[in-house]
Amino acid sequence: MNYYLVALLDTDSYMEIEGIQRKISKKYNIYRNLPKLHITLEVIKDPDIKKLEEVVTGVISPYKKFRTEVKDEICFAPPYKSVNLKVENKGYLCRITRLLDAKLKENNFKLLNNRGEWDLHISLANTNFAKRQWSKGEYQAACDMVKNSNYHRLVKIEKLELWKPINNKREMVVKEFLLK
After folding, report:
1. Binned average pLDDT, 10 residues per bin, the chain of 180 residues
2. Which of 125, 34, 114 is CA-nearest to residue 73?
3. Cβ–Cβ contacts within 10 Å for residue 129, how many?
4. What integer pLDDT is reported at residue 129 of this predicted model?
């Protein structure tokens, strides 16, 4: 099973971005329950959870909650039809992601994303867990809507979590990693 190591926003940042997500979902009738907003840092295949916990804790231990820049949209074309906010590839989040990638590889974890080809982003709407498929036109209109909003903010990252890919919020979280 693939597990996802994700960064989570503080409440204020989350509520602001959730407003955009809710607007898209309502306009295009995408979700019954909105998926949890997050930034995927790593996708790990069949990890040893205890060993993974040690590595992640070791990497993030010196870090306090921090801000990262979210600027503009990034859309992934069909078959994904994913509308996202782009996370700038700089600052503490970039450093933590680079360190995690190196340490996980060093400890022989099977990583499914290639750091050089992975754009950090916050997914607002896509085909995962959607109650219906949206048309190419709806996808393009949603992408344009986010692009035209000229979104540019600093958001606060308060913790990392390890997730199982299921749509049950209570069972999804395997491990929580708090920042100072």
Report:
1. 97 97 95 94 96 98 97 92 95 95 96 80 91 92 95 97 86 95
2. 125
3. 14
4. 81
Task: List the one residue out of 117, 146, 156 whose CA is nearest residue 7.
Answer: 156
Residues 12 and 18: their CA atoms lie apart, in Å, by 10
The size of the chain, in residues, is: 180
Measured in Å, how far apart are the chain's first and last C-alpha atoms?
30
Question: Under DSSP, is residue 19 helix (H, G, I), strand (E, B) or coil?
Answer: helix
Tell me the three state secondary structure of residue 40.
Answer: strand
Quick one: pLDDT at residue 45? 96
| Residue 46 burial (C-beta neighbours within 10 Å; 0-12, 13-18, 19+) | exposed
Global confidence as pTM: 0.94
| Residue with tokens 């503080």, as numbered in its chain | 10
Assess contact for 52 and 137: CB atoms under 8 A.
no
Residues 6 or more apart in contact with residue 17 via CB below 8 angstroms = 9, 37, 70, 85, 122, 124, 155
Amino acid at 80: Y
